[in-house]
Amino acid sequence: MMQELLAAGAATAVAAVAYVGAAARVVKQYERGVVFRFGRLRGQVRAPGFTMIVPVMDRLHKVNMQIVTMPVPAQEGITRDNVTVRVDAVVYFKVVDAAEALVRVEDYKFAVSQMAQTSLRSIIGKSELDDLLSNREKLNEGLELMLDSPAIGWGVQIDRVEIKDVSLPETMKRSMARQAEADRERRARLINADAELQASKKLAEAAHQMADAPSALQLRLLQTVMAVAAEKNSTLVLPIPVELLRFLERGGSGTPATPEHHHAPLPPPVPPVPPEAPAPERPPSEAYLAGRQDAVDAIEDLTGASVDPAPRHDDEP
């Protein structure tokens, strides 16, 4: 009898240990347990720690409550100003209601991913290129609102949405680079022009000051010579301003000339030479006349016509 009782007690103990081993569950701190009994949601969500379920009848599903970082694949679209871009983003979300996340949607992670892709495409089509490049905070807020509205019914909360990168075509990049270069060149020219204007005003003031004190111009010239000579140059090209010459001229005209400064008197001017009279014409010589007559006779013999041998007024001796 005692052996039967001991055997029954041992069997009961083994059954109890087996039951506890099959019914015992441990839920971690960052998890929540959802129990389904015969496929029906059972009671409240199990808190972290040790919990018990009914074997065979209950099924415990653990839901991670940590923040999930999900990258959104790059989406290609056309902005409102007709520029083709590729934009990728990242979504931070977490489960706030474990039961709703399991009951309302089949796979809440896949659902959030697809919703993020469609919302990103919608944001690209509604925005301009400048907004995507410089006004991302506003776009992030709009994208977060678009994702958070349907995710509330899934027991999921969207913490933050960030646009990671905006890829542009190479032609657009070159156009933007040329635009930025032209803008910087324009600003550089404006700054140089402003500097020239200010310098010209200061130079005009300095010129008025030097006009009131002509000796200041000479002192400034000597300072320039000293500054150039300090560089140990072998050649010094020094321009002499006209004002300095005028200053020296005014200074020289005010002092009386000494006898040492007198120059020798200039010689009297040479009278102009009258033009020569034309030489009188001389009569032709006898040799010239004889040669002329011989030429006339030869012409008459060849032509058979008579030739006047009288000399003309332009014949030379």
From TrEMBL:
What is the name listed in the Swiss-Prot or TrEMBL entry for this protein? Slipin family protein
Gene source species:
Streptomyces roseicoloratus
- Region described as Disordered: 251-317
Q: Which Pfam families match?
A: Band_7
In this protein, which residues make up the domain named Band? 22-180
Q: Where is the composition biased (Pro residues)?
A: 265-282
Q: Which family does it belong to?
A: Belongs to the band 7/mec-2 family.
UniProt cross-references to SUPFAM superfamilies, sorted A to Z: Band 7/SPFH domain
